[in-house]
Sequence to fold (243 residues):
Amino acid sequence: MSKAYDHLAEWFEFLNDDCDYSSWSQYFIRGLAAHGAGKTGLELGCGSGAFARALTRAGYEMTGADVSLPMLDKAARLARAEGRTIPFLQLNAAALKWPRRVDFILAPNDCYSYLPQNKLASAFSHAANCLKKGGIFWFDVSSPYKIRNKIANNILADDRDEVTYLSFNHLYEDRVEMDVTLFVREGDGRFSRYDERHVQYIHEEASLRGLLEGAGFTLLACEGHLGEERAASDRLNFICRKE
Fold:
């Protein structure tokens, strides 16, 4: 079985065309401006680069980073297709090192959900070291509500003409393991099958608050997806400032 996003990378934005990347990007752009973030940003877990491209269009100087090489390859191709020059680098959020400090770090769409609890304290400290004093650290995680009530012990499916996506999900005490299968239509009409495993960890709000404080961050806001109430939201956004 392949690693997460080895094959899904090529289809990620296509299969997520219902998530409204435009409104999601504007949520970040408005929020960064409201919190006085500067113009140099690092996007962690950038995937295929949708947010890095949107922020670049808005005048930010972005670098995208991800642990998945297939995702980075897709991100570079999509940026070039827009005529954008955005550096995309292979970096691991768990052991992040960056040669120059940036004004903000953005890590949307579950980047830190892929890290187990015992790696978060170090990961947050690494993020703090990459930020200027007063810099903004903004990330989200899949909410415990979403994992336990929507993903857990469920089968998710998306059937398109070009590709079929299936995810068989199994809940454990601290995580959900998702066995993903893709059936991709080839040029001759036949379908190829690809399998990969994704693991997302359950992170509780109170625990994350404590870890962020220990890494030297002040929590400015904790809110649900696009700023909605977080009680039954699919995502928890943590917006922090480095002290």
